[in-house]
From TrEMBL:
Cited Pfam families: Oxidored_FMN
Cross-referenced Gene3D superfamilies: Aldolase class I
Name of the protein: 2,4-dienoyl-CoA reductase-like NADH-dependent reductase (Old Yellow Enzyme family)
Ranges where the NADH:flavin oxidoreductase/NADH oxidase N-terminal domain occurs: 5-322
UniProt keyword list: Flavoprotein, Oxidoreductase
Annotated transmembrane regions: none
Listed PANTHER family: BINDING OXIDOREDUCTASE, PUTATIVE (AFU_ORTHOLOGUE AFUA_2G08260)-RELATED
Protein's organism: Neorhizobium huautlense
Domain of life: Bacteria
Length: 362
């Protein structure tokens, strides 16, 4: 395919057509108000993105319970008080011509107690002195995801994206290393996937027919087993429980090093699954227009742009204007980010990675 194919529209089972094949990946930026309300910094970030040509913009990880918070100044959607700020964000994206989604997040065992988080492990062996969630507590968290999705719909978002990656609670429950439960949420791969599937089913029942459901999945670390995840994904695709899968890879070119799929690209393990009407996209070091187009050739329906979207809020427009466009090289200076319009709060967050911001740059 050519770069121009990235600008063909994409339909979903539910909701509006996405105008092109670019999604803005969910990006934590730690610039919300204390308590989770969207700040003016959040609004400005979304305003910039809304003018950048994306087909769909996903918020950063947004906590569904106060006890599920992971980051300082994390965006929240656990209270109706959050609705006005969220509604402004949804309206800005809509006015810019893109679709919108809130990424629903609960930190599970990684919830930060210094921020009011309540570490909530699937297993009693994960954290010393912390008991596993009871079956009733798991059901409460499930219902918090569903209630948060309802708030997102009320606020005017086109959908939600479930954070099932990187060891957060939905991912945690999938892992045989982090989940040794003996109730209906543990044991077999089907039981360990039950929380994720019940959240998907509950959101679909509670939402309108045009509301979209996305799902972010990672396959590395945290004791996750690729073969299990491929089978679970095949079930979710076959049942059409989501509108799209966001496959979060560290690198879209990476090769499986062991097991059943050894020698295959990680992406191909998932593109080979029959997906009916479910769409599949991938994130991971997509720095250039050419690489984005290649991913469509490799069987994906869309691409998710993360770090290039921070460096250039209008990355899709730049690709459209120049099929040879490539994102700036990391690291960059804080001055570069500031000149591009990022807030000091966001820049402070990015300083946590030396590969992103040059150390000691002003």
């Amino acid at each position: 395919m050519s770069v121009s194919d990235l600008f063909k529209p994409l339909t979903f089972m539910h909701g509006p057509v996405m105008r092109n094949r670019f999604m803005l990946a969910p990006l934590v930026n730690q610039q919300s108000d204390i308590g989770g309300a969207a700040s003016e910094y959040d609004q400005e970030w979304i305003r910039q993105l809304s003018q950048g040509g994306y087909g769909l913009i996903i918020t950063g990880a947004t906590f569904v319970e106060a006890g599920g918070i992971a980051y300082d100044r994390q965006l929240g959607i656990n209270d109706d008080a959050h609705l006005p700020g969220l509604a402004r964000m949804a309206a800005a994206i809509r006015e810019g011509g893109g679709l919108s989604a809130v990424q629903l997040h609960h930190a599970g065992h990684r919830a930060n107690p210094f921020l009011g988080g309540i570490p909530s492990p699937a297993s009693s062996r994960t954290l010393a002195g912390v008991n596993a969630l009871t079956t009733e507590e798991v059901a409460r968290i499930r219902d918090s995801f569903i209630a948060a999705a309802r708030r997102a719909e009320i606020a005017g978002f086109d959908g939600v994206a479930l954070h099932g990656a990187f060891g957060w609670i939905l991912s945690e429950f999938m892992s045989p290393l982090l989940n040794d439960r003996t109730d209906r949420y543990g044991g077999s791969p089907e039981n360990r996937a039950r929380l994720t599937i019940e959240v998907m089913e509950g959101i679909r029942r509670a939402s309108g027919t045009d509301f979209q459901i996305g799902w972010r999945l990672s396959v590395e670390r945290y004791g996750l087993i690729l073969e299990e995840l491929q089978t679970i994904t095949a079930t979710i695709f076959d049942r059409e429980l989501v509108d799209y899968l966001d496959l979060a890879l560290w690198d879209t070119t990476q090769i499986v090093q062991e097991g059943t799929f050894k020698g295959k690209t990680m992406l191909s393990v998932f593109t080979q699954i029959p997906r009916k009407r479910v769409r599949l996209g991938v994130a991971g070091k997509i720095w250039s227009a050419r690489r984005a187009a290649e991913i469509l050739d490799e069987g994906a329906d869309f691409v998710l742009v993360g770090r290039p979207g921070i460096l250039e809020r209008d990355f899709p427009l730049r690709v459209k204007a120049n099929p040879e466009h490539r994102s700036p090289t990391l690291p960059v200076t804080a001055a570069f980010l500031r000149q591009g319009g990022l807030s000091e709060r966001f820049i402070r967050h990015l300083r946590g990675w030396d590969y992103f911001v040059e150390p000691d740059s002003l």
